Amino acid sequence: MKRNIITTSDGSKTIQIEEWNEQYHSIHGAIQEANHVFMKHGLLFYAETNLPSKTESISILEIGFGTGLNAFLTLIEAEKLKLNINYVGVEAYPVQLEEIKQLNYIELISKEHEANFEKLHDTPWEESSEITSNFQLEKQEKFFKDITTENAFNIIYFDAFGARVQPDLWTEDIFKIMFKALKPNGILVTYSAKGSVRRAMQAVGFTVERLPGPPGKREMLRAQKKGLVTFSDIQ
Ligand SMILES: C[S@@+](CC[C@H](N)C(=O)[O-])C[C@H]1O[C@@H](n2cnc3c(N)ncnc32)[C@H](O)[C@@H]1O
C-alpha cells in the first residue's frame, strides 16, 4: 500500500496510507493528539491518581508502536516526572527508517532528546533495552491478537488504526486480551469514542469513561480494570 508523509494541523508530520485514507495520527495535529490522549489522560492521569510513591515503576503497553511518537513523549515525561517506565511497543509492520527520518518530532518536541529518539528506533526488537536510566523499551514484532502477557501493565495506549479500516481490532476478542494484560486498576486509553467500541470494552469487564477528545474530536475513551479489594488493602 502506498504511504505518504503528510503535515497535520499543528505542523507535525505523520504517515498516511493512501488506499485507506487513514493516518497514523489525527490530521488535526499528530503531536497534539498524542499529548492529549496518551500523556494527559493516560500517563499523567495514572501517575497522579495511582502512584503511591515515585520510586515505583510504571509498565506501559503500546498497541501500535508505529513512528515511536508516543514512546518519545513518554520518555520525556518519565524524565520530567522522575518516573521509571518499562515500555513495550507491539507492532506487526515496523516503520522503515527512511520514513522515520522524514518526521519532524525531534525539532518540534525536543532537540535535546535527539539521540534518544534515534535510540528508540535503533534498538533491536524482541529484547529489553535501556534508552535512558529511567526508560526501558522492548519492541515486539507481532500481531495484537498474539499478545499473551497477563497482569503485567499499568497502562495501555490503544492506538490501532480506526475501526473503519480495521474493525477486527476493536472487538471483544481484542479487548479481552487487553483486559488480561492489565494489572488491577490499570487503564487503557484510546482516541476512539465509538459506541460500539465502548460497549465491547464494557462487555469484557472494563469500566469506561468518556472524556473530552483532542482537537477535531469531541470525545475519547478511558477504560479501567477495576481492582478487587484485597485483605491487605483494608488492613
Ligand atoms: C495508528 S498507527 C500507530 C501509531 C503509533 N502509535 C505512532 O505513534 O506512530 C497503528 C499501528 O498499528 C500497526 N498495526 C496494524 N495492524 C496491526 C496488527 N494486527 N497487529 C500489530 N500491529 C498492527 C500499524 O502498522 C501501525 O503502526
CATH homologous superfamily label = Vaccinia Virus protein VP39
First-to-last CA distance: 57 Å
Ligands and ions found = S-adenosylmethionine
Q: Name the CATH class.
A: Alpha Beta
Radius of gyration in whole Å, from Cα?
A: 17 Å
Helix % is 25-40%
CATH topology: Rossmann fold
Number of helices: 8
Q: Per DSSP, what share of the residues sits in E-state strands of 2 or more residues?
A: 25-35%
Main sheet makeup? 8 strands, mixed
Shape, principal axes of CA atoms: globular
Query: What is the CATH architecture term?
Result: 3-Layer(aba) Sandwich
Topology order in helix (H) and strand (E) letters: EEEHEHEHHHEEEHEHEEH
Number of domains: 1
Mean pLDDT: 95
E-strand count: 11
Question: Which structural class matches the secondary elements?
Answer: alpha/beta
Topology:
Elements: E1 3-7, E2 13-17, E3 22-23, H1 30-50, E4 57-63, H2 69-81, E5 84-90, H3 97-100, H4 105-109, H5 114-122, E6 128-132, E7 135-140, E8 153-158, H6 172-181, E9 182-190, H7 195-203, E10 207-212, E11 219-224, H8 231-234
Parallel strand pairs: 4-5, 4-8, 5-7, 8-9
Antiparallel strand pairs: 1-2, 2-3, 6-7, 9-11, 10-11
This protein binds S-adenosylmethionine.
Would you give an account of this structure?
With 235 residues, the protein is an alpha/beta fold. It has one domain: Vaccinia Virus protein VP39 (Rossmann fold), CATH 3.40.50.150. Helices cover 32% and strands 27% of the residues. The chain contains eight helices and eleven strands. An eight-stranded mixed β-sheet has the order 6-7-5-4-8-9-11-10, sandwiched between helices. Helix 1 crosses helix 2. The N and C termini lie far apart (57 Å). Bound molecules: S-adenosylmethionine. The site of S-adenosylmethionine has 17 residues, from helix 2.
